[in-house]
Specification:
Elements: H1 3-14, H2 27-43, E1 51-55, H3 61-68, E2 72-76, H4 80-93, E3 98-100, H5 104-111, E4 115-121, H6 130-140, E5 141-152, H7 156-169, H8 186-195, E6 198-209, E7 214-219, E8 224-231
Parallel strand pairs: 1-2, 1-4, 2-3, 4-5
Antiparallel strand pairs: 5-8, 6-7, 6-8
Helix pairs in contact: 2-3, 5-6, 6-8
Length: 236
């Protein structure tokens, strides 16, 4: 594993103990979690009974929200401390979630085509090779299955709001949480999806106001955005 990728994992392991504190370092994720869960549920025509994979699940905020709506959830992450926190919290919540410390590539070798929904939220901007992750997500999705991504656009506005504002001015996130060079433009993510055999069906910008703690969709993807794609029905 490249050393800078290990540094990313170390960042999130350090946050594991406070992940479920809605006033802590993960406060923005707590604030946007209802919106991002609703986006998946609406666009995938429900979650109940569906087999869902949460890639880069951290300590399980999204995984638990989907499981509470009746999904059969597997959550994966390479940050071991975060997975430990996820398992403990799921136990306290009475939710049966299959958490694993495993890479997307290794899981794809085991469970290719097994998931109705594959989600990779707020993680592509933290990996060295986002195209590699998108390819694995496509392999893990069943034919016709849904894939969902959310990340941050690489624009001056995104730097000003998501890095300068959130990390240095408002201190909503620890400094160094995001690196500008790793941010992903919508056109780049769309190209990764097409190369992996995914059809992009929606890109929606997300706006988050840290003062009111309100998040909404439907804006231009200048900063944060969601992307919904579907695996082609016939891969032959």
């Amino acid at each position: 594993m490249p050393s800078n990728q290990q540094a990313e994992l170390d960042k999130f392991d350090a946050m594991a103990a406070d992940w479920w504190d809605p006033t802590g370092d993960m406060r923005p994720l707590h604030d946007i979690n209802p919106l991002r869960t609703a986006y998946i549920e609406r666009r995938a025509n429900g979650l109940k009974g569906k087999r869902v994979l949460d890639v880069g699940c951290g300590a399980g905020l999204l995984a638990e929200a989907m499981a509470a709506r009746g999904a059969r959830v597997t959550g994966i992450d390479l940050a071991e401390q975060a997975i430990g926190a996820a398992r403990r919290h799921a136990g306290q919540s009475g939710l049966a979630i299959d958490y694993r410390v495993v890479s997307t590539r290794d899981l794809a070798a085991e469970l290719a085509g097994e998931f109705d929904i594959v989600v990779a939220y707020e993680m592509l901007e933290h990996v060295d090779q986002p195209a590699y992750v998108v390819e694995d997500c496509a392999r893990l999705a069943a034919p016709g299955g849904h894939t969902f991504f959310s990340t941050i656009n690489r624009t001056p506005m995104a730097w000003a709001l998501a890095i300068g504002g959130a990390e240095y001015v408002l201190r909503l996130l620890p400094r160094g949480t995001h690196e500008y060079a790793k941010l992903v433009k919508p056109a780049e993510l769309s190209a990764h999806c097409r190369h992996a055999g995914l059809d992009v069906v929606d890109i929606s910008g997300m706006r988050y106001n840290p003062l009111t703690r309100h998040a909404s969709l439907g804006h231009r993807p200048d900063v944060n955005y969601f992307l919904h794609a579907r695996r082609t029905e016939d891969d032959s």
